[in-house]
Design goal:
By secondary structure, the protein is an alpha/beta fold. It is built from eight helices and seven strands.
């Protein structure tokens, strides 16, 4: 068990402009006994920092662990695999002594996405005899923070609002593997919101080098100039800006004033 200490700043209308720091203790269920692990790499900020953290602790402890990766790409979001490869290459270069195994990839439509991702990850885990797999899923911000999103609040993924269901998934034994060990799914971010991700980028000085290699925006081709800019309308764009504002101790309401998705209908 690895514990990562993170400090997140909170400032906005509800705190009357006074910084209020909150400390999080993030748990990574990783040990020297894990010879093969898997991680979903989407090309977004969350999975990127989780991959970096895993490599960081493997390198720091000189553990003989191989990291395998998988990416499930939506046909409407071809940038996912593109950014996933960039992130993996960056982490490999950052930690040259850490072993990276297979990277499995599949392109699917919207209907197939969830099931295909599960099949892809579990297949990789079974073939490589992984004893743990990791996903960088975060929790939605609380309702009090919803005021910052305005019209975009309804676009959030409701399953991320509460962590009751996720608690049963976290570290749940799935099937016995070699050496009579159990296989676990790890979602270390699921009890905290996006601020914990941005805080990790800030803590390790990765916002300007690994940050630009990722893509959180899920805006379509027509609103992003062919996926080259951010739409500032989708939930993911607004969530990232809100979290970034907190990390740099700024008022998120002010930082989101230029984001059309907050105040325009139908976007």
């Amino acid at each position: 068990m690895i514990k990562e200490n993170i400090v997140v700043y909170q400032r906005g209308e509800h705190t009357k402009g006074t910084p209020q720091n909150k400390t999080y203790d993030l748990e990574l269920h990783l040990s020297e006994e894990d010879k093969n692990i898997g991680i979903g790499v989407s090309g977004g900020m969350d999975s990127a920092i989780l991959l970096w953290l895993l490599a960081y602790y493997i390198d720091k402890n000189d553990w003989d662990i191989t990291i395998h990766q998988w990416t499930c790409t939506l046909q409407e979001r071809p940038f996912q695999f593109h950014h996933a490869k960039k992130v993996i290459a960056f982490v490999k270069n950052y930690f040259p002594s850490v072993k990276f195994g297979e990277h499995r990839h599949k392109v699917v439509n919207t209907i197939e996405y969830i099931d295909a991702g599960t099949t892809l990850s579990w297949g990789l885990a079974a073939d490589k005899k992984c004893t743990a797999m990791f996903n960088g899923v975060t929790k939605n911000p609380g309702d009090r923070e919803g005021a910052y999103w305005g019209k975009a609040w309804i676009k959030r993924t409701p399953a991320r609002d509460v962590d009751t269901d996720w608690e049963e998934e976290r570290h749940k034994p799935i099937y016995p593997t070699q050496k009579d060990r159990e296989f676990y799914e790890n979602l270390p971010f699921i009890h905290d919101d996006k601020r914990i991700v941005l805080a990790l980028y800030k803590k390790y000085g990765l916002l300007l080098d690994m940050g630009p290699l990722t893509r959180s925006c899920e805006g379509g081709w027509e609103r992003t100039e062919g996926f080259t800019t951010e739409c500032k309308r989708c939930w993911w764009c607004i969530e990232k800006q809100w979290a970034t504002a907190h990390i740099w101790n700024n008022d998120p309401g002010y930082m989101l004033k230029t984001y059309p998705g907050v105040f325009e209908e139908g976007l």
